[in-house]
Specification:
4-stranded antiparallel sheet, Translation Initiation Factor IF3, Alpha-Beta Plaits, elongated
């Protein structure tokens, strides 16, 4: 009786495996009667609004001496730090990077000579109240020659969103496994292996002009639109079959 039943299960599983494995979704492995399993992949998604915006500003200067370059950089960077302090950006969220002063060499054939110096200094800034990011950028760009670079979104705590996506992914995988087990004339057992992959990334920030009334005249300002971030979790689960 056992010898007749096993080929039947293998036949059903082979058909299911051929159809569904082509999409890398599920697989039944009943080759060993004592180790019958089904492998499935499930996906769950959940969304959240970013609450952190990170960007950088940089100053670039040239001069005849390293001291002159350094002093010019310091004026801009110190002014930037004052702006950030006035806008309640915590010191722990301001990080100096790429502080550099180097020779400005001019090459002519095989010869080179130093013609002054050039330097740069950048700050990476983390804004924890995104609603204030636009005003902070406006205030920083009022410092002549200070450049604003890039930007990215993040969340201080995305654990609840990941938990929701993970739960949906597992339920999705379990449902597939139950359907396959039923088609194979078997019952689903407990999971014996689970692997997880988190998929997610933040889109580049969107800047757009907003009209602000000031002294009866319209003044353009910067507004940051964080949008919504979708986090996806994929789980690969192996269930026992009974």
């Amino acid at each position: 009786m056992q010898n007749r039943q096993t080929p039947l299960i293998i036949g059903v599983a082979t058909i299911i495996g051929c159809v569904i494995l082509g999409a890398n979704i599920a697989r039944i492995n009943p080759n060993n009667a004592s180790d019958k399993t089904v492998s499935v992949q499930g996906e769950g998604k959940s969304s959240l609004v970013p609450d952190i915006y990170t960007f950088s500003v940089s100053a670039n200067e040239t001069g005849s001496t390293t001291k002159a370059v350094n002093e010019a950089l310091a004026l801009k960077i110190n002014a930037a730090q004052e702006v950030l302090t006035k806008n309640n950006v915590d010191k722990k969220d301001i990080q100096s990077q790429n502080v550099d002063i180097s020779e400005n060499r001019v090459y002519n054939n095989n010869n080179s000579k130093v013609e002054g110096y050039r330097g740069s200094h950048s700050l990476t800034i983390k804004v924890r109240t995104i609603e204030n990011a636009g005003k902070i950028i406006d205030d920083l760009t009022a410092i002549d020659g200070l450049l604003v670079n890039g930007g990215s979104y993040d969340n201080d705590d995305d654990s609840a969103t990941l938990e929701a996506a993970r739960s949906l992914a597992f339920e999705n995988a379990k449902k597939k496994a139950e359907e396959l087990a039923k088609l194979a004339g078997m019952k689903l057992g407990k999971p014996v292996s689970i692997n997880e992959t988190v998929i997610g990334g933040y889109n580049p920030p969107i800047y757009y002009a907003r009209e602000m009334a000031m002294n009866d005249s319209a003044v353009g300002g910067t507004s940051i639109n964080p949008g919504e971030q979708e986090l996806a979790v994929q789980v690969n689960v192996v269930f026992e079959l009974k």
